[in-house]
Write a structure and sequence with these properties.
The structure is a homodimer. With about 400 residues, chain A is an alpha/beta fold. Chain A is built from 13 helices and 14 strands.
């Protein structure tokens, strides 16, 4: 029995595999990027769901259109409009999580051997989704302001197989970094000279500890080259698997056809649940609650890192999102550190799976959103000792 | 902006597009293959859902494993076992509808130019899912007992690019035909000499008007070449988008990785809803209720067809499922008939989209599962008159 060539070298995602390890109660996990379930508005959802099924059960359980539930598409469009994006419900396609947005983007744009440009490092789930379509990955170095524009421009000028630029401009997974406003404007300005779509993955935007939002690429984009991926997984509940794609008509109609043959449509009850929640509740107040909690955890984690981590480690200072990114001395292998850390019941995600090509072994990702506040300091202390041992051994 | 070559020639599915037409209350629709929502156990689902969210809300709304909710996988395995399949929960992967099972099968087995064998005609949603991977389609003629085995064997003997055989053995969409037991055994016996997986789409098995089930290919399969696709969309509620794949370990682990990058996992609340329903209710009694209602509609439709249809039309006599397949005289074009029928407010699906290669214009599919009993006869009478006009005009 022969598998397609795209399956060769496929490996299960660390993050999903880690689920099994961190299920043990004794493990202090900074691994998976899951939201804190204690903030899920469970009671509200129970009430809303009963109401939907009682009043509109047959619709909530029947097949529906691929595009998605119109009232939800309207509410998403309206939230995007209030963020400076010119859009309408017709330009919104509901997806089965933003992950499906990534999968469909690769399917829509990438033939074998076509190139996709991404940040280095970038989201591992995007790498696996794209990999199925056998593209060439081009990693562009990032600094604290985002992707380096001179490097990007050089690539765009010299390569002729580039079909897609993929970026996470806000509180990136895995680094927690955000692009400066200047860098965002530069990307849009550069994109005007090249006929390449930009896929803007904005799953983390709302999880912000800043006072003011920075403009999305989509809101700066006059030529409609940006395809925007949104998600309710960080702001609401990931188990419902609801995200969306915003794009201009001529692109979105292709996405709709590809989604149609992928899973017909997204669970319609879930779409109605979110729509009803947005209708009856103050969503921004709910998000503020999430952010206040995560900010506190981030602060505790950064303080512990500052206190315990060897000084030869550097790390990011995110202003939102769920992750801190750590760089150890070059000789230290994060996978080996993980093996030892797990013996001490501390978990994190090694950084190597966030690079499509580069072999970078000395980085790792720490999650703070779902870390137990009372254990963060303890976990970081334990982890620090393990790292220190490796540094000592390396001389 | 350039799309991938796979997107060329992509067209929206008739069935999804028809949703918009049949939404009008004046239309008598025999078009889309949706279950009757009046049979959805809405009250039960409301009760169960409240219970799940109250007792286990955080789990029901959080990320989960790609494989799916273990209690549901156990129950599916146990139902399959009682149907003669040797399996375990570890061999079940929950999918976002059986449609995702089709999409992932193509992704797993088909490189560009590889061949997939299917019945002629076959399910249009499978054709679109496979098409994204640019395969060669090989249509094998079917008679009333299933795929013609001599034709299949000849193809397997002469072509060396065949990577997958796709069949719907029970109450096929679109024809309503079922394979004889003999033909099933023959396929399994033939498959032993060739290294090609068989994807058995069994979405309709439970919607049976027969006393006795025929053995699934999976239950006959000693060499574990069969990949089984199941669905709760016909027996429970399609809006929840829950199906499954059953396959041996070494195949299923690949499917799991492909699903991981497609949508992480299927809506977990939906999985818990179905699991709880199966736990607390007599699922077979619920299915019996569906079948008794659909059988009645099928009988009314067949009687009306017998009474009104021109004698030059032939049609199938399904013993289950949701569809009757009609063949008009060769000169008559079903799309033109549809245009006229819609003017009379009667809808159906033209047959041409069920053939990946062949140009067959004179067939169409009638759905009886969601047809209003009191209007079936009226709708068939109107449709007959339209067809008769075309036959008269064709001389």
């Amino acid at each position: 029995m022969k598998f397609a060539t795209r399956v060769k070298g496929l490996t299960p995602s660390d993050i999903q595999e880690m689920f099994k390890v961190i299920a043990k109660p004794e493990v202090i996990s900074f691994a998976s990027g899951v939201p804190d379930p204690n903030i899920f508005p469970v009671e509200e959802i129970e009430k809303i769901t009963s109401q939907i099924i009682n009043e509109n059960g047959q619709t909530a359980l029947q097949y529906n259109t691929t595009e998605g539930y119109i009232p939800l598409r309207e509410k998403i469009a309206s939230r995007m409009k209030s963020n400076g994006v010119k859009t309408h419900k017709e330009n919104i396609l509901i997806t089965t999580g933003a992950q499906q947005g990534l999968e469909l983007s690769a399917k829509l744009f990438l033939d074998k051997g076509d190139a996709v440009i991404c940040e280095s490092p970038t989201y591992s789930g995007a790498i696996s989704a794209f990999k199925s379509y056998s593209p060439e990955f081009i990693e562009i170095t990032t600094d604290k302001n985002g992707m380096k524009m001179d490097e990007l421009k050089k690539v765009l000028d010299t390569k002729d197989n580039i079909k897609m630029i993929y970026v996470i401009t806000n509180f990136q997974n895995p680094t927690g970094k955000s692009w400066s406003v200047k860098r965002r404007k530069e990307l849009i300005s550069i994109s005007e000279s090249y006929d390449v779509p930009i896929v803007e993955d904005n799953a983390y935007e709302e999880i912000s500890f800043r006072e003011k939002k920075r403009p999305t690429l989509k809101s700066l984009d006059k030529e409609e080259k940006v395809i925007y991926l949104g998600s309710f997984s960080k702001t609401f509940c990931p188990g419902l698997r609801v995200g969306w794609i915003e794009a201009k008509d001529s692109i979105l109609e292709k996405y709709i056809m590809l989604k149609q043959s992928s899973d017909m449509h997204t669970n319609i009850l879930a779409q109605m649940q979110i729509s009803k929640y947005l209708e009856l509740n103050d969503f921004d107040a709910h998000i503020a609650k999430i952010n206040s909690s995560y900010k506190n955890r981030k602060n505790i984690m950064l303080e512990s890192i500052k206190k315990y981590f060897p000084s030869s480690c550097s790390y990011t200072h995110p202003e939102g999102g769920m992750f801190i990114w750590v760089e150890m001395p070059e000789k230290i292998n994060a996978r080996k550190v993980l093996d030892e850390a797990l013996k001490e019941n501390v978990a994190f995600i090694p950084g190597d799976s966030f690079y499509p090509n580069k072999e970078v072994k000395n980085t790792f990702r720490l999650n703070f959103s779902n870390a137990d506040e009372s254990k963060i300091s303890k976990g970081i202390e334990k982890l620090s000792k393990v790292i220190q041992r490796f540094i000592n051994d390396a001389g």
